[in-house]
Each structure stands twice: as structure tokens, then as C-alpha cells.
Design brief:
Number of strands of chain A: 20
Oligomer: heterotrimer
Number of strands of chain B: 0
CATH topology of the largest domain in chain A: Rossmann fold
Chains: A alpha+beta, B mainly alpha, C mainly alpha
Family (chain B): Belongs to the binding-protein-dependent transport system permease family. CysTW subfamily.
Structural class of chain B: mainly alpha
Number of helices of chain B: 14
Main location (chain B): membrane
CATH superfamily of the largest domain in chain A: P-loop containing nucleotide triphosphate hydrolases
CATH class of the largest domain in chain B: Mainly Alpha
Order of helices and strands of chain A: EEEHEEEHHHHEHEHEEHHEEEEEEEEEE
Structural class of chain A: alpha+beta
CATH class of the largest domain in chain A: Alpha Beta
Organism (chain B): Litoreibacter halocynthiae
Membrane topology (chain B): Multi-pass membrane protein
CATH architecture of the largest domain in chain A: 3-Layer(aba) Sandwich
Helix content of chain B: over 70%
Strand content of chain B: under 5%
Number of helices of chain A: 9
Number of domains of chain B: 2
Shape of chain B: globular
Radius of gyration of chain A: 24 Å
Number of domains of chain A: 2
Distance between the termini of chain B: 35 Å
Largest sheet of chain B: none
Protein name (chain B): Spermidine/putrescine transport system permease protein
Chain lengths: 370, 309, 420
């Protein structure tokens, strides 16, 4: 672990008039972490970022950066630098002037500024492009200039507000790797806002998943994917099949739920909800498409689901089979492409099985809307 | 409490120095250049024209006499009406309206033509040609018309040369020169707002309508004019207000006996040195023109935000 | 086909009428500046002359007026542009519920008659001086009754609204994220304003300044009340035009028109040049196809017109230095004399016929008179008779039409006689 500066949000609530954008958020971000806020648009993640950068004051609670309360300190006095969604490069300034703007306002000489800007330009592989205007750069280049400009201020914390959303897919994937590399090289705390789970999972040390102003879960990407804390997280991060039912029995950290169509199903209770389920409760069980497979004849009925095939799609590296599920929801099964011609025939009744340790059960709740 | 929050937000967004500068400039403008002057003019209009020594003395009381003078003249018994001034007032308002309507009809075709044929060199040349008279002094423009409309002006010479008339026509005394001058003075303030809105109309809308078989008239009535309405009302408002408040054109182009209402105001101020009376006349002018404009805006369902676009 | 042609003809006619109405008076006025006739007119055309420009340049009132107009214009630009800019920035931030009220307030001055603004300014500052207890002769009293001070305030009260409109249009395209980015990078609010917003607004500030200056320069309705004992160009002009017109005003108008055309063409040429550069940059147009014309004029009719106009003005000024209309003026004077003489002749003829008739009536009188009578009788003969009799036989209205061969003979005859 490098020795970056920690950021702590203590009981943050942010209201705009009658509307509560963020409700009682508690987040501890370790120094030097790459930390992501993941959530659908309008969930309040940008609001949190603006509270950290100082563009708005939380209605309640405290923002601590390196242990210091930031109340009443304006954005220009905080040790943070923000990379805007649209990058907000100054269109009338040359690239090097953009990068060294923070030095300019601090009163550094032109020579000093130019020197530092050139160093940063080399770092982002744009050496010699300093005299161009931002409008003369490509999307990816602008992106890197924005990063260099933020880094030039020597911030303790770099805040990134969906900076990759305007790029095309290829470039976005490339920039993910590059961002992660830059973060590891400079070793400061990155706080990253995104609605793209792929970005969050690949880059982050820790991810906070947000829904309508509330943080549902904070954990590593791996844990969020495998052990979602709420139905929202389970359905928002990655693809998931949901089965609704009532808890029939609980033994240790495993539970059996009774569903309408698929009978009794066994799975483990997600770690965050152990002890919070009782027999008779409404529950939801989630199984990833890749955790389903075609069942052998003698499979245990508590981990098998039988359903009619609606459709099958070939996706290159895999086949997706869609089956008639519970309550109008389709069940999706993902089968790796190992040279088969097809997996199923439309209308055919299939038996699918799963491993109980790959399925999680939790109290019923709101799902992410598609 | 809420107001305080707005202010604190404002200073937070702009910083203390910039915030104070912005607020300071705006309040100086609104308070010292607009609101207080208008109020003090209103206050003046209710006072007697007293010698300096008596100002603030027992005789300095509020009165309606300045307004009564417009209606009844110097007749304190209120038996007869001040027909001279009232006639001038009514004539000013009606003539300003006619000038406005004349300008609407004259400008609409050109605004449509310019607005819908963008980009071509010819149109750009026309726009440059339009801008030139816009920046020529109002007085000089009136002067130019006076050269044309004068007794031995170009128009009379031409008419006599063509034997259309044997005697020079006195355009000035008959107020023809004045109306032509008023129409001329503010025509571009009608054209440009119209042109701007029509330019923003998507050409495809017109083509779609034509494709659906709409007649030329219907296209204008149902598509172009509704779209251009804010521009038309905006232009009409400006032309009406400026014509009703015009001073230079009537002074230069008006006949010796026919007055414009602003000239009465001018006379009270500069010739009779009766500021209070002049202020009352000015208030009447301001109030009546504003009421007319607001009524028209209400009828055509246009709001203030459209003015000046 | 024919209906399309009809529309085209109608449109052409309409454009012609519109532009004649708009530009015709200005053209006629410009022409009168070059007519030596002492009344501004184009017909009858007397002589092509630059004398009215001399009259103009030697007119102290106009020179003073221009000077004060410029002083007031500069003051108005500074005040109204800064107020307009502040008002437009506040407009972008004002609480949504207050916005329409606020907008109505800052747009209203455009709609208030200029006369009313002038009066209210005058009345208010007079009042303010009295309230502050400023006595005659004190600094405040002097300031509040100073025509320049009052005119700048009076004009700024509505010109600021025009400036505000220019700024609002530009601000709509401003990304407030840029200011936030600057703050985030450590700039103070003042720095963010100076380094980010102000450079962005610079084109708008330039055009608002030009607009404000021109609006101030040509304002009459407000100025005529607030100027008190000073003079601006417009008030001088208005006074002159009302008291009696002469073509030196036309010559001023001509200068202003030429300057305006210059400015408009320069602006248009610069715009086209910029567009063309952009097109070249984007590879839409080949960079260098021009052979004869310098680069900036290629595909730029405005630039070509600009150069032509400059050429014409140089020729005109050059001619004005050398050209003297004296010969022509003498001609005109002589032509007038001929006209007068023609009339004299006619009168004489009438008189002669009358006399002859009388002579025929009084048959006993000798028939001597008709031969010599014209010398001393007739309408003009009578007028000049005393002079003619007392001096030599070389009167100015020399009644010797029979000897002359036309106008020129008349012109040169007296001179020739004198020089010999």
C-alpha cells in the first residue's frame, strides 16, 4: 500500500430543496486506493463527488480528507483535482497552458510552467503537442491532457467524473488500463464515478454501489460480483437470473426457498445478509448465467430448474439460451462455445443445474431496472 | 432565511470579490439608473412648479394639477377640454400604431426571403446593405428624408418633371414626410428580430407542409407566422415604443403646426422650464405605451422573455 | 414555370422598392454634399464641389460636438458594458423563480422612451443633489448638473440592456464546467473570471462595445435632455437641421456613410477570410488557386469591394486637393445672368411692343425713341439707370446680346475689355 491520503465521508446527507440526493453515506477510502462509485444515472454519485471536491457543502455530515474536516473550504483550497465528464479543457488556451493552469494561478513563471507541462506531456505520451489547441486533439488525447492537467496541481486526491463515457468502446478499454497504470505510478487516491460496471470492476480496489442516494454495498469488485449485498447490487452488477420465493428452511448459511415454477431451490445466504433471513420471509435467489449448466438426469432437484427454451443466441465465445422463467422474467444460461452446433431447440424443455455455492439468497427487495 | 441562502450561494459561486462587484454593478444600474429616476419623475409629476425658495415649504404639496392640465388645459373649472394636447396625444399613439403595422407588412416578406435563403453571397450582400443605414445617425436619416420631401426636394422635382403635379406638394405640412420618416427610422428594428426567428425555422417543416399539399398562404399562416410570432411581436413592440417616443423625426420632418407628443414634453422642459408639467406628460406617455404593449403581448400570448431576441 | 417567374419578378420588384426606400435617401443626401448649391439638393445640379467639406471642417460647433460625443461614448461604453456583463452573469445564476422578473427589469430600459429616460435622469440627480444638501457651486452640485456626467448615466441606463442581450447570447454557449475546473485547479474566483470567462466573452465584449459606442454616438432623445450646456454631435446636428439646412451636413453624412461601409466591408471580409481559412484547413477548398489576387482576397468579394472602395476614397480625396470648382461656379453664375438677361430681354421686347403700340397710337411723335430706348428703359434698365448714367458705358448687366455669340461670349467679354 502506498502512502496516499485517505478520504472519509461521515454520515453525509445532501438535499436540494425537498429532494434528497444522498442519504446518510458513510465511506472510508484508504489512501492510495482506486475507489469507484458505481450506480445508474441520477443515483447521487456525482453529487458525492461534488461534495468531496467542494462545489457543494453536504447538508449534514462531514467530509474528511487526510483526517481534516473540509467544511467551509472552497474547491480551490482543497487538495483535490477533478476530471470533468466533458473534460472542461479551456478551449482558448494551448495544451501546455491548460496543463499548467494550476501553476499559473499560483503565480509560477512561464518557463517553470512550460517545463512541468512538457514533463507531463511526455508522461502521457503527447510530447511535442503542447502548442496545439485542445480542439486539434483527438478524443483520447484530450482525455490524457485532462488527466495531466489535474495531476499538475499535485493533488492528494484525484476525482474522476465518468471521464471515459464520451469515448468509443476500444479507446475506453484502452484508457481503463492506462488510468490504472497512471494511478499505480503516481500512487495518489483516485475516486472514480461511473455507471459502467466493467470500468468499476477492472480498475478499482474498492467499489461502492449506489442506488437512489443510498450506498448499498462497499467492497472489492470481486466480492461485489460474487456476494452482492442486496437485490439491487445483484441485478445491477453483471447479469443475473432472479428467482422469487419464500424461505422454507435455513441451515447455517444456506437456505431453501420455495418458488412458484421451479419448486424448492437451495443456495447460500449472501454474507451481508446472514442472520437477517427467517423462515417464511419473501426472498430472492440469484444465479449468474455462467453458473447454470445442463443437468445430468440424476441431479439433485434442489439445485435443478426445468424450463422451456424461448430462444437461443450465438455470441461468438458463448451461446446464450433464454428460457421461460418465474413471473415473466426470462432465465438466461450462458454456455461456452466449445465447437457445438447448438445447445437447444426452441420450445424444448431443459433441466438446468447449478452449484449451491454459486447462488445467493437474500431478503426480497428492489431490482435494478433494465 | 431563504433569501439569505440564495445570497450565500451566490457568493459561494462567485467568490466575495466578484460577487460584490456583480451585485454592485447590477444594483447601481437598476436602482440608480432605472428605479429611482423613474420614481422621482413620478414624484415630480405630482408637484407644483415652485420657485427654488419655496421648494420644501408649505406650498410644496402633492397635486393632480399637472395631469388635469393635459385633460382640461388651463381652464380650472374643468368645463372645456384641452383639445390641442389631447389631439396630439391621440394622434401620436394612433400614428405610432399605423407606422408599426406598415413596418410589419413591409418587413415580413424580406425577413422571410433572407431567413430562408441562408448562406448565398447575394443574401449576405443584402444583409450588409441593411446594416449600413442602421448605423447612420437618426438625425441624418431624417435630414436625408427632408432633402427628398422638401418643397424643392427631389420628389417634388420628379413629380413636376413627370407633370404629375404642377405645384410643389407640401409633404412636410401634410405630415407625409413625418410618417415616411418614422417608418424609415425604425424599420430595421422590425426586420432583424423577424429575420432571426425565421432563420431558426427548419426549412424541412416548410417542405413537409408543401409536400402534404399545403398552399402558399396556408404554409405562412400555419407554420411560418406562428414560428415567427415572438420575433414579430418583439419587433412591433420596439417599433411602436420608439415611434411613440420619437423626438428627432417629428422635430425635423413635422410641419410647424402639427406636434408629436414628445415635442410637448420637450417644450415643457426646455421652453417653459416647467419640469413638473413635463414629467407628468412623460409619465402619461410611458404609462399609455406600456399598457398598450402589455395588452398586445397578452393578446398574442407572448412574454417578456421573447423581447430582444 | 410562368408562375415561378412571376414570383421572381415580384420578389425582385419588392427588393428594389425596399432597398430604394432604405438606401435611396442616403444616396441622395450623399450626392447633395458635392453640389455647390447652397441648399442641399441634387436638381438642379450646379457644380461639383468639395466646398461643403471645408465648411464642415471649419465648423467649431461640429468639432466640439464630435469631441464631446467621443468622450461621452467612451464613458458610456465603460459603464454600460460592465453593467451589462454583470447583469448577464447574474441572470445565469439568479434563482429560477426570480428570473423572469429580473429579466423584465433589465430589458425594460430598451422599451422606455428615450425622452422619459432623459427626463428621469435629469430630475433624479437634481433631486439627489438637493437631498445630499449640495449647494450651488459645490462639487456634488456641479457633478449632478454636469451634462457629460448625466448623459453618460442616462445613455448607459438603456445601452446596458443592449450590451446585456449581446452577453446573454454568448453566455448561453459557455460551459460553467470551465469555471469549476479552474476553481478546482486552485484559481480564485477573480482569477477564474479573468482567465476563463473574460477571454471567452472577449468577442462579445468587443461587439457590445462597438454597439454601445455607436448607440451612444447617435443618441438624441435622451441626450437632448441630459446634455444641458454641453453639445454632442447629434444635438448640434439637430439644432442645425431645425434652424436651416445646408449641405455641410450632407458632407458629414457622406463621411459617416463611407466609414460605415468601410467597417461593414472590413468585418465581412474578415469573416469570409476566417471561414475560408477554416475551409482550407478542413481540405474543402484548395489552398492556393489564386493567380492574380493576393491571398486574402481570393474568393472574398467583400475584401475586393473593400480595396476598391479604399481606392475610390483616395482618388476622391486626391481630387479634392487639386480640384477647384471656381470655373464651374463662374459658369453657373453667368448662366444665371444669362437667364436674368433673357428675362430682361423679354421684358424689353414686351416694353418695345407696348411702346410701338403707343407710338402707333400717338402717330405725331417722331419714331426716334425705339432705337435708343432699350439702353435706359425697361425693368432693369430703370434699376441701374443712375449708375449707368453717372459712370462710363460699361455696366455690369451689359445689354449687348446682339454682339455676343452665346454664353461664352458674355463671360469673356467684360474681362477682355478690362485687361486691355
Amino acid at each position: 500500500m502506498s502512502s496516499g491520503v485517505a478520504v472519509d465521508l461521515e454520515n453525509i446527507t445532501i438535499r436540494f430543496g425537498d429532494f434528497t440526493a444522498v442519504k446518510d453515506a458513510n465511506v472510508n477510502i484508504n489512501g492510495g486506493d482506486f475507489f469507484s462509485f458505481l450506480g445508474p444515472s441520477g443515483c447521487g454519485k456525482t453529487t458525492i463527488l461534488r461534495a468531496v471536491s467542494g462545489f457543494l457543502e453536504p447538508s449534514e455530515g462531514r467530509v474528511l480528507i487526510g483526517g481534516n474536516d473540509m467544511a467551509g473550504i472552497g474547491p480551490n483550497k482543497r487538495p483535490t483535482a477533478l476530471i470533468f465528464q466533458n473534460l472542461a479543457l479551456f478551449p482558448l488556451m494551448k495544451v501546455w497552458e491548460n496543463i499548467s493552469f494550476s501553476m499559473e494561478v499560483a503565480g509560477a513563471s512561464a518557463a517553470e510552467r512550460r517545463k512541468r507541462a512538457d514533463e507531463l506531456l511526455d508522461m502521457i505520451a503527447l510530447g511535442g503537442q503542447g502548442d496545439k489547441l485542445p480542439s486539434e486533439l483527438s478524443g483520447g488525447q484530450k482525455q490524457r491532457v485532462a488527466i495531466a492537467r489535474a495531476l499538475c496541481a499535485n493533488p492528494d486526491v484525484l476525482l474522476l467524473d465518468e471521464p471515459l463515457s464520451a469515448l468509443d468502446l476500444k479507446l475506453r478499454q484502452h484508457m481503463r488500463t492506462e488510468l490504472r497504470e497512471i494511478q499505480q505510478r503516481v500512487g495518489i487516491t483516485f475516486i472514480y464515478i461511473t455507471h459502467d460496471q466493467g470500468e468499476a470492476l477492472t480498475m478499482s480496489d474498492n467499489v461502492a454501489v449506489m442506488k437512489a442516494g443510498v450506498i448499498d454495498q462497499i467492497d472489492t469488485g470481486h466480492n461485489i460480483y460474487d456476494d452482492p449485498a442486496t437485490p439491487f447490487v445483484a441485478s445491477f452488477v453483471g447479469e443475473n437470473n432472479v428467482f422469487r420465493g419464500k424461505v422454507k428452511s435455513i441451515s447455517g448459511n444456506e437456505a431453501v426457498i420455495t418458488t412458484n415454477r421451479s419448486g424448492d431451490l437451495l443456495s447460500r445466504i449472501t454474507p451481508a445478509q446472514v442472520g437477517k433471513l427467517a423462515v417464511g420471509d419473501d426472498a430472492m435467489m440469484f444465479i449468474r448465467p455462467e453458473a447454470l449448466e445442463l443437468a445430468p438426469r440424476d441431479a439433485d432437484s434442489k439445485t435443478t430448474i426445468s424450463a422451456n427454451v424461448i430462444n437461443e443466441e450465438f455470441e461468438g465465445n458463448s451461446f446464450s439460451v433464454f428460457l421461460q422463467g418465474d413471473g415473466g422474467k426470462q432465465i438466461k444460461m450462458s454456455v461456452p462455445n466449445l465447437g457445438q452446433d447448438r445447445i437447444s431447440v426452441r420450445g424444448e424443455n431443459l433441466s438446468l443445474r447449478y452449484d449451491a455455492s454459486n447462488a445467493v439468497t437474500m431478503p426480497a427487495g428492489e431490482l435494478a431496472s433494465e | 432565511m431563504k433569501k439569505k441562502m440564495i445570497f450565500s450561494d451566490f457568493f459561494k459561486n462567485n467568490g466575495v470579490v466578484m460577487g460584490c462587484l456583480l451585485i454592485g454593478l447590477v444594483s447601481f444600474w437598476l436602482i440608480f439608473l432605472i428605479i429611482l429616476p423613474q420614481l422621482s419623475m413620478l414624484d415630480y409629476s405630482f408637484r407644483f412648479n415652485l420657485p427654488p425658495a419655496e421648494v420644501g415649504g408649505p406650498k410644496d404639496v402633492y397635486t393632480l394639477s399637472n395631469y388635469e392640465h393635459l385633460i382640461y388645459g388651463s381652464d380650472t373649472t374643468h368645463q372645456t377640454y384641452n383639445t390641442v394636447d389631447l389631439k396630439v396625444f391621440v394622434r401620436t399613439i394612433i400614428a405610432a400604431m399605423l407606422v408599426t403595422i406598415f413596418n410589419i407588412f413591409l418587413c415580413y416578406p424580406l425577413a422571410y426571403f433572407l431567413g430562408q435563403s441562408k448562406g448565398s453571397g447575394f443574401v449576405r450582400l443584402l444583409v450588409v446593405l441593411l446594416i449600413i443605414p442602421y448605423w447612420i445617425n437618426e438625425i441624418l436619416r431624417a435630414f436625408a428624408l427632408r432633402i427628398i420631401f422638401g418643397d424643392s426636394g427631389l420628389l417634388n422635382e420628379a413629380l413636376m418633371f413627370l407633370h404629375l403635379t404642377s405645384e410643389p406638394i407640401d409633404f412636410i405640412r401634410q405630415d407625409i414626410a413625418l410618417y415616411a420618416g418614422l417608418g424609415y427610422a425604425y424599420i430595421l428594428l422590425m426586420l432583424f428580430p423577424m429575420y432571426n426567428v425565421i432563420e431558426s425555422l427548419d426549412r424541412n417543416q416548410i417542405e413537409a407542409a408543401r409536400d402534404m399539399g399545403a398552399s402558399w398562404m396556408r404554409i405562412h399562416r400555419r407554420i411560418v407566422i406562428p414560428h415567427a410570432k415572438p420575433g414579430i411581436v418583439s419587433g412591433a413592440t420596439m417599433v411602436f415604443m420608439l415611434s411613440a417616443g420619437a423626438l428627432a423625426a417629428p422635430q425635423i420632418l413635422g410641419g410647424p403646426s402639427s406636434l408629436w407628443f414628445t415635442q410637448l414634453v420637450y417644450q415643457w422642459f426646455n421652453d417653459s422650464l416647467n419640469w413638473q408639467q413635463g414629467a407628468a406628460y412623460a409619465i402619461v406617455l410611458l404609462a399609455s405605451t406600456i399598457i398598450i404593449v402589455l395588452t398586445v403581448m397578452k393578446i398574442f400570448k407572448v412574454n417578456m422573455g421573447d423581447i430582444g431576441k | 414555370m410562368s408562375s415561378a417567374n412571376l414570383i421572381r419578378v415580384a420578389l425582385g420588384a419588392y427588393l428594389l422598392i425596399f432597398f430604394s426606400y432604405l438606401l435611396g435617401p442616403l444616396v441622395v443626401m450623399s450626392l447633395t454634399a458635392f453640389n455647390s448649391s447652397s441648399f442641399p439638393t441634387v436638381s438642379p445640379w450646379a457644380c461639383f464641389s468639395f466646398e461643403w467639406f471645408d465648411v464642415l471642417f471649419n465648423d467649431k460647433h461640429i468639432r466640439d460636438g464630435i469631441y464631446y460625443s467621443i468622450v461621452i461614448g467612451i464613458g458610456t461604453v465603460i459603464l454600460s458594458v460592465s453593467m451589462g456583463l454583470a447583469a448577464s452573469i447574474v441572470l445565469t445564476q439568479v434563482w429560477p423563480k426570480l428570473r423572469s422578473t429580473y429579466y423584465t427589469m433589465i430589458i425594460a430600459p430598451i422599451l422606455i422612451p428615450g425622452v422619459v429616460l432623459g427626463i428621469s435622469t435629469l430630475v433624479f440627480w437634481d433631486r439627489a443633489g438637493a437631498l445630499l444638501g449640495a449647494t450651488d457651486g459645490s462639487f456634488l452640485h456641479g457633478l449632478f448638473h454636469n451634462g457629460i456626467f448625466l448623459t453618460i448615466l442616462g445613455q448607459s441606463s438603456f445601452i446596458a440592456s443592449y450590451a446585456m442581450l449581446v452577453f446573454v447570447a454568448r453566455l448561453q454557449r459557455f460551459d460553467t464546467g470551465l469555471t469549476e475546473a479552474a476553481l478546482d485547479l486552485g484559481a480564485t474566483h477573480t482569477q477564474a473570471f479573468r482567465k476563463i470567462l473574460l477571454p471567452f466573452m472577449r468577442p462579445a465584449i468587443a461587439s457590445a462595445s462597438v454597439l454601445a459606442f455607436l448607440a451612444s454616438f447617435e443618441n438624441y432623445n435622451t441626450t437632448t435632455f441630459t446634455i444641458i450646456d454641453y453639445k454632442t454631435l447629434t444635438t448640434v446636428l439637430a439644432q442645425k437641421v431645425r434652424l436651416g439646412i445646408n449641405p455641410s451636413i450632407s458632407s458629414l453624412a457622406f463621411i459617416i456613410i463611407v466609414l460605415t461601409i468601410f467597417a461593414a466591408l472590413a468585418f465581412e471580409a474578415a469573416n469570409r477570410n476566417k471561414e475560408r481559412k477554416l475551409a482550407v484547413q478542413q481540405g474543402k477548398v484548395s489552398a492556393n488557386k489564386s493567380g492574380v489576387l493576393p491571398g486574402f482576397m481570393t474568393g472574398n468579394p467583400a475584401a475586393i469591394l473593400l480595396v476598391l472602395l479604399a481606392f475610390v476614397v483616395i482618388v476622391l480625396v486626391g481630387t479634392a486637393q487639386k480640384y477647384s470648382p471656381e470655373a464651374c461656379k463662374v459658369q453657373v453664375r453667368e448662366a444665371k445672368q444669362i437667364e436674368i438677361q433673357q428675362r430682361i430681354k423679354e421684358l424689353r421686347e414686351a416694353r418695345r411692343i407696348k411702346d410701338e403700340a403707343r407710338a402707333a397710337e400717338e402717330a405725331e411723335q417722331p419714331a426716334q425713341a425705339p432705337a435708343n430706348a432699350p439702353q435706359n428703359s425697361g425693368a432693369f434698365g430703370n434699376v441701374f439707370a443712375p449708375g449707368n448714367l453717372s459712370e462710363e458705358e460699361a455696366p455690369k448687366p451689359d445689354p449687348a446680346p446682339s454682339s455676343g455669340t452665346g454664353a461664352f461670349g458674355n463671360v469673356f467679354d467684360p474681362n477682355n475689355l478690362n485687361s486691355e
